[in-house]
Amino acid sequence: MSISTGSMSSYHNCSASDTSGSSGMSSNVSPRKPKSVNVVNTAEQAQQKFQIEHWRRELVSKVNVYDGNLDDFLDLFVPSNTPCPLDAPDARIAEDFRPLKGHEVEHYDPLISIFNRIVAAFPEDKRLSFCNTHSQTLSFPFTGFAEHHHKARPDISVSFPGDDISERTKSPNWSRFAMVMEAKSTAAEDAFDVRAGLDRTNAIVQLAINARSLMFAHGLLAAYTIGIYGEMIRIARFDHSSVVASASFSIKSQEGLQIIQEFFWRFVHPWKPSLGAVVGCDDTLRKMNTSDEAWLKKKLGAEANSLLAGVNLREGRVVDVWNDDQPEGSAPTKYLLFKLLEVNARLFSRSTMVWMGVEYNEDDDTDTELELRIIKEAWRQIIRIPESKFYNRLHQTIPEEEWTGLPRLVGGGDLGVREVKEWEKTSNAAESSRTLRSHTANKRFQTPPRPMHQTFSWRLAVGDDALAYERSHMRIVVDTVGRPLSRFKNTRELVAAMRDAIKGHRLAMERGGILHRDVSSGNILIVDRPPPTHQCAGILHDLDYSSMTLDPPPTNASDGQQSDAALPALCPLEHEKQVKDAEKRKERTGTYYFIALELIDPEVKCLVHNAGHDLESFFWVLLWIVLRHTVHNHASGLNACDATFPFGSDTLAAGMKSSWLRRSNPLLIANNPPLTDLLDDFKDIVDDATKQPPRKPNRPSSRVPITYDRVLKLFDDALNRTDWPEDDAAIPYTPLKTRTISVYAPGPLQIGSKKSVKKRQREEDGLESDYSDLESTPVESRAASVSSKRPRRGVASAPPNIAITVPSWGSGATSTTRVESGTTQGPGGKASGSRKTKGSKGSSCKAPGPGA
């Protein structure tokens, strides 16, 4: 096997029968399914019809209604080893409950009264309490990300055992809620009625938002909700692979009340006390307490103020970490996770959380300096290769002196696989597997429950054929801590970080035989304090969706292109023999906005994802960051990113990318010739590699492969320039709630066009779409130099006068900023003053005063 070092992979003509790349390593593209987007550009975008429709379709494909009886449902999905000793509730407690259509709000308090009477005989430390919260808004549970995600108003909230929440609090949050309920007036509004199809999935969306918030707030492995439809009830169990709902039953019947009692009893009596307060808790995790906080602040010492600025430590947690090769029965390593850096809040997904943390030894009161770590939690699709295996390959194949642009694995592994192995060793596991859906009364409290760090809901509800849809809980620790690209201190730092991430991608391919397949803005970090063993300005992390050759590439790989016949075999998927059409059941990889043109274009039948596509993704990442966080001359102004990266329509997304690659005029970044030139030259390389014929007469007439050498030379040449600005830190980007933009130039030349978007408020029974209620903060106006001609290399041309009218964040009020030739406006509408550049001969930038 040979792997080219100059060109890991070139683009190729894709066809339905093509399953190989032209060089390097390739991997079949997984079918892409409709999904909700985790990141949006505008407040309106999350409310657009396609977003809601995709979300609904994603949910409806993950809903299973259990077809067994209610006792079996409780046995399988709410496991407990403690029989309920209480007498069945008196049916008369619900006889006065008469739900009426259109009066659902009036039903909440009578329902709470019924539930209170059901749990009245529970031991005090196990008793649940209930609160009417339909008029109170609960934000996403992590403060730093709350404005980016849905708010919710659950109709009825349920406490943890022993906690009294019956008195309504002024500002409730998820910390005291263990479960929620949503009520509708009639049985005809049953969200889980399979005959309704998509018609009622908005009601499931409400339950899903609540379940997601509960799971993230408490680190739950599964969350429970109750849907009430008239007098009919369903119990629903959510995990990261699906939702399973029970058959419906009546709250007014003796049997129905007893089912509710049994469910509540089981919910507060997990199989073992060590499993937590309620069923679904993660026994390898606990929340931070005041003692943990004190220890952390003491150990951080002088760095505490900077590292903990803006951090809500009560959102932190202490977790156990086991290595995959750790001997059975050995103690885990504890880590204290104190700062959430990134979160994918989609429920049925990897649900990745990236934390900054430290190894935790509460008995250590020495002054030993702590080493900051990145701790990542994710739920991998069970048929995909565990991320730890990719890191192990990198450790085995990359020499110490060559290591750059990649983090090193410190520890961790697959908690789900570990738990399944332990479960399979139990005496009756074999019998349990054979009778997966056949339980008898005398076995109800004898069979150990299925593991919860690996989902079993598809297999329990549908059968073993659904194995491919299950997910397994990963927790890994890496050594390199970084900042998101969106927080660069200057644009040269941004470019250096991306250059080193590309080097890391190349190392992974050429040394490890690993193709990343998910290059995105969130997967590249700027490194502040690189480990002494491998200095770098940036890293490429998150190998969840990578593919890997069966064997590492030879160390003496030739520089020549390898033939299709010489393409290396790939490592098989996990459980490939047990899963029919496993390759087709993988979820599509790649963050939507950054997927290569060929892979997203519905007119291109491309089955192969190769290194060239990943290199193209680096271009889209750079463009994304520039449009969001720098001053530039894009005609759409604050709408530039939204206009360039539409979501929901593959045809539109591909069209916009194709259009961008064919544009003749470069995007000008204010007072930044190096970045302007780099972006334009990178665009030309990507354009050369795509299959559409070039439109510029001076461009090559045939496709030219995109290679590591060509791309890295661009970055190196840019970084070697001396005219980089010094004080051009990232401008914070917040999606606007209301957007009105006017861009014009004096005289007959129309530079831009006016675009107005009125706020559309969508609220359905307490459910609001992402970004629908942002805080009101001053707009950080951005005006850029505008020119219709490309400037000479190294010289930023002066623009005509322009005016940009924008509203304040969330206020609806507009203000106009006039920017004259050679001027820029800094963050917050303040004059940025002259910008110093290293060796720049361009004119300085001055912002006009209030009277300008």
From TrEMBL:
Gene Ontology MF terms in the entry: protein kinase activity
Region (Disordered): 1-38, 426-450, 747-852
Domain Fungal-type protein kinase: residue ranges: 168-626
Comp. bias regions, Low complexity: 15-30
Gene3D superfamilies in the cross-refs: Transferase(Phosphotransferase) domain 1
Biased composition (Polar residues): 1-14, 426-435, 774-788, 811-824
One Pfam family this sequence matches: Pkinase_fungal
Protein name according to UniProt: Fungal-type protein kinase domain-containing protein
Organism: Trametes cubensis
